Amino acid sequence: MATGKTKTDRRDFLKKSSKIVASASVLSMGLNPVKLIASDKAFTNDVNANNKKRIALVGTGGRGSISWGKDLLEQLPDKVEMVGLCDINPKRVEFSKKYMGTNAKTYVAKDFDKMLKETKPDAVIVTTTDCFHAKYAVRAMELGRDVICEKPLATEAEQCQQLIDTEVKTGQKIYTTFNVRHMAEAEEIKKVIMSGELGKIISAEFNEYLDIHHGASYFRRWHGKKRFSGSLLVHKASHHFDQMNWALDAEPVSVHAFGKVAFYGKNNSYRARNCRNCPFKNKCDFYWDITKDKMAMDLYVKNEDADGYLRDGCVWDNEIDTYDSMTVEVKYNNGVILNYSLNAFLPYEGQYIAFNGEKGRLDVRIYYRQPWEVSHQNEFRLTKNFKDTKTWNVKINKGSHGGADSKLREMMFNSEIPDPLGKMAGSRAGVMASLIGIAARKSIETGETINIKDLVKFPKVWGWF
Fold first, then answer.
1. What is Dmax (Cα atoms) for the chain?
2. DSSP assigned state of 61
3. For residue 91, which of 293, 275, 309, 292 has the smallest C-alpha distance?
């Protein structure tokens, strides 16, 4: 990780955020009440809510062991029971079991079918390496289980097709865990657009700024290889594409993109296999001492002899082919044009999002980490044509991803929680977000504009145009 300290980082800000009071909320600005929209139902809706949901989890890395493991069981002990854990690494799955504090049976990846037959879960949570999401989701549905899958739902168009076809054939259901929909800023954006204050949306902008700390972390992990992650356009940007699809209540028609590996990978004169054994650690700004991260040591380093995965890989690895600089243009079925960009090597971290409507413009600046002090983690500005401009902030909750993970878990397993914004996401949302990233990657590789309809044959029940 790069050396040097910034004045304000995301974790410190989130700790302080509970003390921040929003100067005004969108609902106090005279906006119209939001209309109710259809959403996917919570996982518990078709099951007796008094029974614990039997869950099996495949993929016991950080996201699986923590957010969908320990945190889930501690947050909802009366609603969820972990009955099975599965991973390609037999040592890691055993550590995960102890870390979660569960009595769930453990299995290696080749025994996935056996796990489902023996433990009889109500649903399977998939938190594996991205390229294997579809494989396990499809097999789980074939064996009669619903699926709760981390984003991205798929990394290839063929996988999207398999998921769609299997869901239709089996009648099982896929839930995609887009936690960004549950973040305070995303909720506020959705409310403003639904209020009609902007009128018809004509175009939108989304700029993602990943700094040299967070951005580099992707390139020292498996995410830096497209064969595993589908590129950051699929792994990371699927969050953003879904957020825009959801906010605009629209689906993509065509995609054109540019991208390159301009900073990491081969763009350096020296490299090593990983940080711990690097002879250049004293001169490399991106040296990361993994031995100081207890969770990373326990979850990965102590178990790396079982699968060879190095959690502290070199960001200058010649095999890195995931783009670190990219721009994407998306045309939607309602005529909106989205301009998206992501850079993963910047001196500060955050987002700039904007919507241009017939009646005005909404600007949203989100701060995560930067070498200067900010009074609020977000700034909203609504400017009306020929009229005035209004600014406000929204309060950020405590917890991982601004409390979004907790809210997502609660809504997933509690059918009594209302969902007026339609935050629950199913297979359709997951597929559409993945397809934008897949199309963008294909556009970069071919130089062509990619039509979404050419990637997947959608089922008639979707009523896709």
1. 66
2. S
3. 309
Burial 342-357 (b: 16+ CB within 10 A, else e): bbbbbebbbbebbbbb
Asked whether residue 103 is domain-assigned, the answer is no
pLDDT of 14 above 70: no
Residue type, 311: R
- Which domain range does residue 215 map to? 10-32+180-264+320-462
How many residues would you count in the chain?
Answer: 465
Tell me the two tokens of residue 386. Answer: 């020929």
Strand ranges (E), 51-183: 53-58, 80-87, 105-108, 123-126, 146-150, 174-177
Q: Give backbone dihedrals phi and psi of 392, rounded to 5 degrees, phi first.
A: -160, 170
**Average pLDDT value over all residues in the chain:** 91
Distance CA 323, CA 265 (A): 10
Residue 319: count of CB within 10 angstroms of its CB = 11
Residue type, 63: R
Q: Domains in the chain: how many in total? A: 1
Does the pLDDT of residue 22 top 70, yes or no? no
Report the alpha-carbon distance of residue 251 to residue 428 in Å, rounded. 10
Q: Per the structure block, which two tokens stand in for 42? A: 């919570």
Structure tokens at 374: 């900010």
Give the model confidence (pLDDT) of 344-364 as tens digits.
999 999 999 999 999 999 999
Task: Indicate the SS3 state at residue 211.
Answer: strand
For the chain, what is the radius of gyration of the CA atoms? 22
The tokens of 317 are what? 């690895």
Q: What letter would DSSP give residue 123?
A: E
More reliable by pLDDT, 25 or 153: 153
Structure tokens at 193: 């657009």
CATH code for position 23 = 3.30.360.10
Query: Interior CA angle at 315 toward 310 and 321, to 5°?
Result: 100
- pTM here is 0.90
